[in-house]
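Entry:
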Amino acid sequence: MRHLLFAVLAATLVACSPGAGGAAPAASKAAHPESGLEVIPLTVTSASGVHRFKVEVAGSAMEQAKGLMFRTKLGPDEGMIFPMSPPRGASFWMKNTVISLDLIFIAPDGRISNIAANAVPYNLAPLTSIGPVKGVLEIPGGRAAELGIAPGDKVAW
């Protein structure tokens, strides 16, 4: 009897194993090594071409409140996206933010409404969107100008 029970248990385990007709494991998502946030591709299409970034997703209220605070480096093609659903007016500050950033405000149609360029580290002055936005993209300070990214350009993620 014990052998029969063991055989049934073994057959059940094999049937549920990936590659044996069972459900495949969920695809693993890329996570940033420092923040642990999901990293996704994002593109900005401008007159100067398509610019590709790998961005961390600050999806929760807590993740958005922390943002890039205390970070000491950000690669030239890295950033953070703050999705906002439903779209709304957005206001950011640079409290506890060590590095300069460009804040790119993305209108509900996916186009850039405005850019707060070269935001000053630690500054408490509000940096606000022009109208409601569906997201805010933070990239290294000065990078938008370097790449020719401007209001009206299309952002997709």
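Residues 1-25 have pLDDT under 50 and may be disordered.
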